[in-house]
Amino acid sequence: MKFMLLIHQGTTPTPLDPEAWATLPEEEQQAVYDAYKSINVTPGVTPGNGLQPPETATTVRVHDGKTITTDGPFVDTKEALNGYLIYEADDLDAAIELAARIPAARLGGAIEVRPIMEW
């Protein structure tokens, strides 16, 4: 079964925000790098890509045949989607176990585990 793990950063510092990243001790910064390196080589994991900040998003809807775009995400949220990965696992428990290893899960964010529909 395939799962998408959606990484919601929340207030988690990332290297993309040097000021926030500097608030983490060097050991914690290295632990984050090491965790992602380990996750990315886990059998069944297809690493995804990080996403640009939410303010770079465009939300698209179609209403009465007319395309409507809105700058930024549809809702203001602290847990903006920052990245994803795909994990082929035996079951949900295995996917949850992997999600718990993602640093954002313990540093103020959350990981959404969602089964992928296979047609």
General description of the model:
The structure is a single chain. The chain is of the alpha+beta class and 119 residues long. It has one domain: Alpha-Beta Plaits (2-Layer Sandwich). The strands form 2 sheets. It has a 4-stranded antiparallel beta sheet. A two-stranded antiparallel sheet has the order 3-4. A hairpin with a 2-residue loop joins strand 3 and strand 4. The mean pLDDT is 88.
Overall strand count: 6
Query: What is the CATH third-level topology name?
Result: Alpha-Beta Plaits
Reading off the top of the CATH hierarchy, the class is best stated as Alpha Beta
CATH architecture: 2-Layer Sandwich
Terminus-to-terminus distance: 12 Å
Mean pLDDT across every amino acid position: 88
What proportion strand? 25-35%
The whole-angstrom Rg is 16 Å
- Describe the global form: flat
Largest beta sheet, briefly?
4 strands, antiparallel
The SSE order reads EHHEEEEHHE
Helical residues, percent: 25-40%
Low-confidence stretches: none
Helix-strand layout with pairing:
Elements: E1 2-8, H1 18-21, H2 26-40, E2 45-50, E3 58-63, E4 66-71, E5 81-88, H3 92-101, H4 103-106, E6 110-115
Antiparallel strand pairs: 1-5, 1-6, 2-5, 3-4
Describe the structure in brief.
The longest helix has 15 residues, at 26-40. The protein has helices at 18-21, 26-40, 92-101, 103-106; strands at 2-8, 45-50, 58-63, 66-71, 81-88, 110-115. The protein is of the alpha+beta class and 119 residues long.
